[in-house]
Amino acid sequence: MRLAGASAVAILLLRWVLIGGGVGVLAGSASAFFLVSLDWVTHWRETHPWVIGLLPVAGLVIGLAYHYWGERAGRGNNLILEEIHSPRTVLPLRMVPLVLGSTLLTHLVGGSAGREGTAVQMGGALADQLTKLLRLPPPERRLLLIAGMSAGFASVFGTPLAGAVFGLEVFLLGSMRYDAVLPAFLAAVSADLVTRGWGVGHTAYPQLTNLPLTPLGFGCTLLVGVLFGLAARSFATFTHWISQQFARLQYAPLRPVVGGGLLLLILWAFGTTRYQGLGIPVIVEAFRAPAALTDFAWKLALTALTLGSGFKGGEVTPLFFIGATLGSALALVLPLPVALLTAMGFVAVFAGAANTPLACTLMGLELFGAGAAAYLGLACVVAYLFSGHRGIYSAQIIGVGKHRRMAREQDNPRTDV
Question: Is 163 helix (H, G, I), strand (E, B) or coil?
């Protein structure tokens, strides 16, 4: 009996090594192409600043593309989450070129957006194409979709552990599917290896030295965790509100046109590229010296306007920007190193907005080292708690409420307003 059990586990492992490896190759290669292309369009935009004048035109192209060819693909990450909860139909392959092209166009003209949404959608859609090929039943298809999300996330940020746990955590708030642990980790690690194998690197952030948690540091971390959670909640709420306002325009392709026009006016008024695109240089700068308090607020507003009006991309890197600059600015009034506060904000605002505290804690360790693990983990957990049952993914279902007062919302879609 023991030999039979061991054989069954070995077969399971071999099966998912092959499937997870296949998902990793697909998602990792797609992310590599995406990251190289994104670097190119970002550089082109920075050397040709006049291109932001095409924001309304780009909005029209994106709006028309999704209106006439998007169909279900327009649901984005939420479509993947919905298929995990209630498997129905294989994700449309058109999701890949649509989100890839639209995200690159958004960044080319200076929209404030991220990249994780694109990578996760490509990973999930490409992985799901294996469903028919391998004739997977619905329970195993769920695992395949989780693996695809994990692979996309891991490969675009170079964080395989965080990517694996993100796929396990993100679809069911407060709970996790342990039958998906093996597929998620295999796909995430494989995708990261493939992306690096293509010669594509990732941003290097400062490594935090060994910082033991002191009573003063403990108190400051609780305080900033609350602030980071409220920032995450504000971002999710404001983005949802912006989306509701643009939904009043009956003809959907006009929404990003109007949004692009508003973005253009604001960016011209600023006269700076500081809040366009990913904002990686500003994030790196925040680790070295305290940022202006207005940086996080403007990035929050412009990203909500970009994504809420219908442009494509992701929320995560802008959330890194929002959290990093907010944490950096707090170094002016709190007795903690600027790099530590920046790193805490970097991961904690994302933890609160995506409702993924474990994945974000692991991301902090992978990006900044284990020297400040207690600070990073505590900030993520507190931000997660104070963001409430709100977040950037409307298709999340509340598995376990964040505290007893929210228990009545359990097993329901999370609330946005």
Answer: helix
